[in-house]
Amino acid sequence: MVKSHITYQGGLHCSAQHEPSKAVIETDAPVDNNGKGEAFSPTDLVGAALAACMSTIMGMVTERKGIDLTGMTVDVAKHMNADPRRIGKLEIVITVPLPEDTPYKSMLEQAALNCPVKKSLHPDVEIPITWIWGK
């Protein structure tokens, strides 16, 4: 179990501290929902968590095989639905610095698809993934 401590700072800003590391992140409400957009919104963090989780799980798989994924990028575009207000779609673009014909392609794609954050999201959230190999 890992704990975090969130403090509402007023003005739609929060501070979240990760208990084990003491690392802190700030959040703000998005501009389209009465905020100033001065930091990640809570729903932005969901998209960022998905991208980081996919990257981490892929990294775990490749490290066991002695493959270096340094430089891999994952971009995420969050789309909100209005009624009810919720995340409707998280578009993912994964750029992998391995050739498209790598024998690890299927294994890496499956690792990303089975990351814990993706498995935790509601099935109504669309998650289209575009793969770019060899960059």
Write up this protein.
It is a single chain. The chain has 135 residues and is an alpha+beta fold. The protein has two domains: 4-33, no CATH class; 42-133, GMP Synthetase, Chain A, domain 3 (2-Layer Sandwich). The protein is built from three helices and six strands; from the N terminus they run E-E-E-H-E-E-H-H-E. The protein has helices at residues 42-65, 105-113, 116-120, and strands spanning 4-10, 13-18, 24-28, 73-82, 85-96, 129-133. The strands form two sheets. Strands 1-2-3 form a three-stranded antiparallel β-sheet, with no helix packed on it. The chain has a three-stranded mixed β-sheet with strand order 4-5-6, with helices on one face. Strand 4 (73-82) and strand 5 (85-96) form a beta hairpin. Helix 1 (42-65) runs antiparallel to helix 2. The radius of gyration is 17 Å and the shape is globular. The model has no long low-confidence stretch (mean pLDDT 96). This is Osmc/ohr family. InterPro entries: KH_dom-like_a/b, OsmC/Ohr_fam, OsmC/Ohrsf. Pfam families: OsmC.
